[in-house]
Write a structure and sequence with these properties.
This protein has 170 residues and is an all-beta fold. It contains one helix and ten strands; from the N terminus they run ββββββββββα.
């Protein structure tokens, strides 16, 4: 695939990642889930399509979000996400290809009138070979910023042979 030069340092992480996670927050009971996170390159464009889905351990759908990870000529990245829970997130941060970290610590959230109020979020991704660990922090419904989700994902078997080949025509 002909990736944009800004996306090329992220190419080794393209594809699907799946595994398990757990969630907790001061206002809810803890829970477990399975997660699939897919990063899809778009030929010639300086962004990657992002799709995330979670399900209960029994397989019932729980959450989904979709958006774009935008790269620049520097280590600065932006993640734009839409969620059916009534939020859109614009996060900004850095990607460091040397240590495989993607840290999105600045956010702007828009809540629909019927959504629970989320004030701020942070997302952390650490790629280590065929393993990806994630953490999601949020300040919502009157609570201060605290970790809400964490997961450990593994590269899909189909993407292990040739990472970076996932593509779409967005």
């Amino acid at each position: 695939m002909d990736l944009h030069e800004f996306v090329a340092p992220f190419a080794e992480h393209l594809g699907s990642w799946s595994g398990s996670g757990r969630g907790y927050y001061p206002t809810i009971d803890g829970f477990e889930y399975t997660e699939t996170l897919t990063f899809t390159g778009v030929p010639g464009k300086p962004f990657v399509k992002v799709e995330q889905k979670t399900a209960s351990p029994a397989g019932a759908p729980m959450h989904v979000e979709t958006g774009y990870l935008r790269f620049s000529a520097t280590d600065h990245v932006e993640l734009i996400l839409a969620q059916p829970t009534g939020q859109t997130e614009l996060l900004e941060g850095t990607y460091n290809p040397a240590d495989g970290t993607l840290e999105l610590t600045e956010s702007r959230i828009v809540n629909s009138t019927t959504a629970k109020t989320v004030h701020e979020t942070q997302r952390f991704y650490t790629f280590n070979g065929d393993q990806l660990t994630t953490a999601f922090h949020m300040a919502a419904v009157g609570e201060a910023m605290t970790q809400h989700l964490e997961s450990t994902l593994h590269r899909a078997e189909a993407d292990r042979a040739e990472p970076g080949l996932a593509e779409t025509h967005a």
